[in-house]
Design a protein that fits this description.
single chain, alpha+beta, Heat Shock Protein 90, 4-stranded antiparallel beta sheet, 4 helices, 4 strands, globular
Amino acid sequence: MVQANAERLERVVGHIVQNALDATKDDGMVTACLRRLDDARALIEVRDNGCGMSPEFIRDQLFRPFQTTKTSGMGIGVFEARQYLRELGGDIRVDCTPDVGTVMQLVLPAPQRAVSNSAAVAQTDS
């Protein structure tokens, strides 16, 4: 469980997955998984075996607004994704090899505090 605006988080994950799909050939593969990273963080990992990005592109352009290699779009999706994750106390990590693929890791704060059923009922009744 993470504390985030569901619609914004869905847009962030959707954008990252769409980028992976766009970078991957029809016979390629995109996978996504969610796991707990440690006691305080969760990780959404999106992995593809697409065209990849150069270290220079990642360093100089990937997280800058209005930078894109696509014929459509405004080039603000990854910038906005990182901004939102940072607002939440998380971040985006990128591991990429040109012509091999990309791994995007969305790190999210995930408090370990468990809510009992009685506490959940009390919270919804107020």
